[in-house]
């Protein structure tokens, strides 16, 4: 966190783990090294049919018909790449909905601030300093 004269800023990194049947593959730079700055992350589907059959489930996402594709690919991706703006929008919606269920929401207001690279929120209430929260994502 960072404490300034009239505000407190909290920064939180959240590591996104791929759901079962998916893997995240960061793009390498031209020298086959991890890039220093943010890069595109490809979402690959993995076959888990053997595991699904043991549990009495249907085929995995890799072998499903196209109209029954993965939620991750349909909702959080553009093509087969994670779309940070879509991830940010989805998480902002989840955090905002969850906030309304907390008792603190009766005394404080949580406002989502515009950002396409991270989730940013402002918390206002009966305290004298402004509080800001930023959630950034990593894979």
TrEMBL record:
This is IPIL1 protein. It comes from Pedionomus torquatus.
């Amino acid at each position: 966190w960072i404490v300034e004269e009239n505000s407190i800023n909290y920064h939180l990194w959240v590591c996104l783990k791929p759901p079962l049947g998916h893997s995240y593959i960061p793009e390498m730079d031209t020298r086959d090294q991890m890039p220093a700055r943010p890069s595109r992350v490809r979402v690959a589907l993995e076959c888990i049919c053997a595991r699904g059959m043991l549990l009495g489930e249907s085929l995995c996402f890799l072998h499903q018909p196209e109209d029954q594709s993965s939620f991750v690919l349909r909702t959080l991706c553009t093509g087969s790449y994670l779309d940070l703006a879509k991830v940010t929008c989805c998480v902002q919606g989840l955090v905002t909905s969850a906030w309304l269920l907390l008792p603190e929401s009766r005394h404080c207001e949580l406002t989502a601030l515009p950002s396409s690279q991270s989730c940013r929120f402002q918390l206002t209430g009966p305290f004298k300093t402004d509080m800001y929260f930023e959630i950034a994502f990593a894979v």
